[in-house]
Write a structure and sequence with these properties.
binds zinc ion
Length: about 90
């Protein structure tokens, strides 16, 4: 009969084993992916392998939302400037 301590010890060993298996599987997979990426690169396709946790931040939407062009200094409308303002006579 195994005591609780024995069971916990076994579970811990299984966890260690699991972590080792995961780690070795992961590095094997990563190596084959890197090989494939290198093959793609040879064909002229450039891809970067990025772990999702370290993905670069999406570009800030502020710059994309920024209105293009200036506003007219006379009437405050965009699309023209003070020189071509229709309100200027
Ligand atoms: Zn104007």
């Amino acid at each position: 009969m195994s005591s609780l301590a024995d069971t916990l010890e076994k579970l811990k060993k299984l966890d260690d084993e699991r972590a080792k298996l995961l780690e070795s599987s992961k590095s094997a997979l990563l190596n084959s992916i890197k090989d494939n990426l290198a093959a793609l690169s040879d064909l002229g396709f450039d891809y970067d392998l990025v772990a999702s946790g370290s993905a670069p931040r999406a570009r800030s939407s502020k710059s994309a939302a920024k209105p293009s062009g200036r506003v007219c200094s006379i009437c405050g409308q965009s699309g023209h400037n003070s020189r071509t303002c229709p309100k200027k006579k």
